[in-house]
Amino acid sequence: MTSVAVLDYGMGNLHSVAKALEQVGASRVTVTDDPAVIRAADRIVLPGQGAMRDCMAEMQRHGIDSVVRELVQQKPLLGICVGMQALLGRSDENGGVDGLGIYPGSVRFFSGVPAVREQRLKVPHMGWNNVRQSQQHALWDGIADGSRFYFVHSYYCVPERPELSAGECEYGLPFSCAIAEGNLFAVQFHPEKSAKDGLRLLHNFLNWRP
């Protein structure tokens, strides 16, 4: 029996994530912003979609920021898309937006990368791309190195500690698209939109014993 709280602050593909978790075996998935329900869950998913400034404002309004800081070292937590970016210290978006600051690092705009302009790559980075597994991890179990996952983002994460990176992708430059430490695993791509390998990652999350 595995219960999962999908954190609801109005910014994310919440019900698609919840349905995918149910599909891979979660016994109870609750989309919620209730701190008591979140604390009672076995596992936590922090999704995110849209502008970082709006996401951080809504996290603070719902009290999600405090709950994540409290529980990130206590329960398995999966961050998705902006849910990964928000874990770092600061985003370049809109002249600068503070993240949760759980890990030191920054979130940068693809259009500022010379190779993106020179190669005329579209921003946002949207579609399927290969992910290189830069560290062994239980969430990669059964997923071949170099497998393709689905991305939709204009900003990329630069963690200050390179050892945090669990997966890398390339779009004009190599960038960290997954980070992991302790109870936390976070990805820039959308596992709920990434076919069998995305579902496998969610299955692995449900069975992970950090």
Tell me about this structure.
This protein has helices at residues 14-23, 35-40, 52-62, 64-71, 82-85, 114-118, 195-207; strands spanning 3-7, 28-32, 43-46, 77-80, 90-91, 97-98, 105-109, 125-130, 132-133, 148-153, 155-159, 165-170, 174-181, 184-187. The protein is α/β, with parallel strands linked by helices and 210 residues long. The strands form 3 sheets. Strands 2-1-3-4-14-13-12-9 form an 8-stranded mixed sheet, sandwiched between helices. Strands 6-5-7-11 form a 4-stranded mixed sheet, covered by helices on one side. The protein has a two-stranded antiparallel ribbon with strand order 8-10. The protein starts with a strand and ends with a helix. The model has no long low-confidence stretch (mean pLDDT 94).
Number of helices: 7
Distance between the termini: 17 Å
Low-confidence stretches: none
Broad shape: globular
Major sheet:
8 strands, mixed
Key terms:
210 residues; alpha/beta; 4-stranded mixed β-sheet; 14 strands; 27% helix; 30% strand; globular
Quick summary of this structure?
With 210 residues, the chain is an alpha/beta fold.
Secondary structure layout plus pairing:
Layout (H helix, E strand, L loop, with lengths): L2 E5 L6 H10 L4 E5 L2 H6 L2 E4 L5 H11 L1 H8 L5 E4 L1 H4 L4 E2 L5 E2 L6 E5 L4 H5 L6 E6 L1 E2 L14 E6 L1 E5 L5 E6 L3 E8 L2 E4 L7 H13 L3
Parallel strand pairs: 1-2, 1-3, 3-4, 4-14, 5-7
Antiparallel strand pairs: 5-6, 7-11, 8-10, 9-12, 12-13, 13-14
